[in-house]
Amino acid sequence: MSDAISQAFDCARNGNFSEARQLGEDNLARHPDDAATWHLLGLLDDISGYTTSAIQRYQRAIELDSSIANYHSDLGFALFKTNRLSEAE
């Protein structure tokens, strides 16, 4: 995980979601295939109530790196929240 994404996660943990989102968006502009950034932005969307966007971002993270269990579990929970139960399984 890059320093920028580590810093963004720290911001999010401290409740500074807007700064975390800005850091994530900036990193994504520089590294469009960074799975951790897609996941971070998915989490931020999820927290903000943008579940459909979160699902798309989680799916992109998984396309880029399917080996991370958290990506799959976060996607499954977001699908569950939108009542897409068969997909969540």
Summarize the structure in words:
The chain is an all-alpha fold and 89 residues long. The chain contains six helices and no strands. It has helices spanning 3-13, 17-30, 35-47, 51-64, 69-81, 85-88. Helix 1 (3-13) runs antiparallel to helix 2, helix 1 runs parallel beside helix 3 (35-47) and helix 3 runs antiparallel to helix 4. The mean pLDDT is 95.
Describe how the helices and strands are arranged.
Elements: H1 3-13, H2 17-30, H3 35-47, H4 51-64, H5 69-81, H6 85-88
Helix pairs in contact: 1-2, 1-3, 2-3, 3-4, 4-5
What is the number of helical segments per DSSP (H or I, 4+ residues)?
A: 6
What pattern of helices and strands is seen along the backbone?
Answer: HHHHHH
Largest sheet: none
Helix amount, in percent?
Answer: over 70%
Mean pLDDT: 95
Number of strands: 0
| Span between termini | 28 Å
Strand content: under 5%
Please mark out the parts with pLDDT under 50 across 5 or more consecutive residues, or reply none.
none
Overall, the morphology is globular
| Rg result | 12 Å
Helix-strand category: mainly alpha
Offer a concise description of the structure:
This protein is mainly α and 89 residues long. It has six helices and no strands. The chain has helices at 3-13, 17-30, 35-47, 51-64, 69-81, 85-88.
Please name the defining characteristics of this protein.
89 residues, mainly alpha
